[in-house]
Design a protein that fits this description.
heterodimer, A: Rossmann fold, Rossmann fold, 4-stranded antiparallel beta sheet, B: 8 helices, 81% helix, flat
């Protein structure tokens, strides 16, 4: 059994199926790319894996533990517990505008520590609880600060730690969103269209960044419609068309597509890549 | 009646105006939050009830609402002695509660769903999502319309005179009727202008405090 196993996952919105019988597996430390055109169901699939949408049918298993099956009735708390396995870097980043970069990364860590500490001291009496909380909090806060400092350092965010999201570039926002997602140390890190709205140079940087994350042992799921980017990072590829997985396999899939849908998608993508390259050349005067 | 005596009289009336304004504001804000939650409720019956209620309150004059609240309980249930001040307070609170609720609703709906999703992914609880993530961006968006409504409320307290609550304008009208000095009416404008000026400065300061981020 694979590390992450997805079986026959399905979802409809108002009777219209957006994903049908999606099945695939992913091993620990691999990068899975979910590839497809806009509207093919990629983001819905990712949102279901992250428990932001509830599937209508199917099964999700992680490390042998059943996270979702149609017979399981999940309440908000159950869903939150399942979400903890995943981190998600959104296409629009969704940084919290009222907090600076440092606090965007710190806030989830702080709230999680507070929650854990409250549980830890819950059995004590009122005054003992307050005292135990106060004593433990100082050490936790220091540890959190160290962790945030390390994340800011790792993603070259030190110089902009006091900046607010509105002043950041697309690349900077993405790195902040990534650092924030990593703060809670999720087992699987997901990216929704990480290269959209980035110029070609930044796309290469993102590809390098994802490879680095993989090298550090992380398991990644990346949704994209960009073929060159997918080819640069993927261990496994799942190709979606109209809510169905048409083809899947390892990274060689892009060289040897068997379905007419993937062949057409690749030739379309090649044309777009050429157009983009030409317009870049014109811009740089080459 | 000299200027000093008139000012003293009007100050008494203005005390009623300010009290009416302050109490209405204090009641209408939480009432607006409650109405907003009811409007956004997934319970269809509650949602449609609120739609109807909003239609009635926004579609009829505030003056008529004050008259209805003051007279109708007596006419229907033979209740005597509903306090005039209380009747105006209830009418203003419901009316402004509805207007505030619509401001809160638009503010809540204008904050991106993505912010909520991001917070969910970061293990925030429902209450933390509201207090730590949504509250300030919503406040930033609703402050300008909320400021407008607050200023309007100060002026709308003048409608209390329709059921003989002696706020500043009715006090002035009584002086005009008794002493035939018309300038007293115009003089009340100064009280409104000063008070609304102070309020505007405070509300602008609050808006400026939130300028450090863009929602």
């Amino acid at each position: 059994m694979a590390y992450l196993e997805v079986e026959n996952l399905a979802k409809s919105f108002k009777g219209r199926p957006v994903l049908q019988a999606a099945s695939f597996g992913l091993e620990q430390g691999e990068i899975l790319v979910i590839l497809g055109n806009s509207g093919s169901g990629k983001t819905t699939l990712l949102r279901m894996l992250c428990f932001l949408e509830t599937p209508d049918a199917g099964k999700i298993t992680l490390s042998g533990q059943e996270l979702y099956s149609a017979s399981l009735k999940l309440n908000e708390e159950d869903k939150a517990a399942r979400r903890a396995h995943f981190g998600l870097v959104f296409q629009g980043f969704h940084l919290f505008p009222q907090y600076d970069v440092h606090d965007n990364v710190m806030l989830p860590l702080k709230l999680q520590s507070q929650k854990a500490l409250k549980v830890q001291v819950a059995s004590l009496g009122f005054f003992a609880r307050k005292e135990a909380y106060r004593k433990a909090w100082q050490g936790i806060e220091e540890a959190n600060e160290k962790k945030v400092a390390a994340l800011l350092e790792e993603f070259h965010l030190n110089k902009i730690a006091k900046d607010f999201p509105y002043s950041l570039s697309g690349g900077e926002s993405q790195r902040v969103a990534l650092a924030r997602a990593l703060a809670l140390n999720p087992e699987i890190l997901c990216f929704d269209e990480p290269t959209s709205a980035l110029d070609p140079r930044l796309k290469l940087e993102v590809a390098d960044l994802l490879k680095k994350l993989k090298a550090s042992g992380r398991t990644l799921i990346v949704v994209t419609h960009e073929i060159a980017f997918a080819a640069a990072i993927a261990d496994r590829i799942v190709f979606l068309e109209d809510g169905m997985i048409v083809e899947q396999g390892d990274s060689r899939l892009l060289q040897t597509p068997t379905s007419p849908e993937l062949r057409e998608f690749l030739s379309q993508g090649e044309k777009e890549d050429n157009d983009e390259r030409r317009s870049q050349d014109q811009k740089t005067g080459a | 009646m000299d200027f000093f005596e008139v000012t003293q009289e009007l100050l008494q009336g203005f005390g009623v105006t300010i009290l009416l304004f302050a109490l209405t504001w204090i009641i209408a804000i939480p009432l607006g939050v409650l109405f907003c939650r009811m409007t956004l409720s997934r319970l269809k019956g509650l949602h449609y009830f609120m739609q109807g209620f909003i239609w009635v309150i926004r579609g009829t004059p505030l003056m008529l609402q004050i008259i209805v609240i003051f007279y109708v309980p007596g006419l229907l249930f033979n209740w005597q002695g509903i306090d005039r001040f209380v009747a105006v307070l209830v009418a203003l609170s419901i009316n402004y509660g509805i207007y505030f609720s619509e401001i809160f609703r638009s503010g809540y709906q204008s904050v991106s769903e993505g912010q909520k999703d991001a917070a969910l992914m970061l293990q925030f609880s429902r209450s933390q999502i509201f207090t730590r993530v949504l509250f300030l961006p919503i406040l930033k968006k609703i402050l300008p319309p909320l400021s407008n409504e607050t200023i309007s409320l100060v002026k709308d307290t003048a409608l209390a005179r329709v059921i003989a609550v002696s706020e500043i304008l009715l006090t002035a009208q009584k002086i005009v009727a008794t002493y035939a000095i018309i300038w007293v009416l115009f003089y009340t404008g100064v009280f409104y202008l000063i008070f609304n000026g102070v309020l505007s400065v405070i509300l602008k300061k609050a808006e400026r405090k939130l300028e450090y981020f863009k929602a």
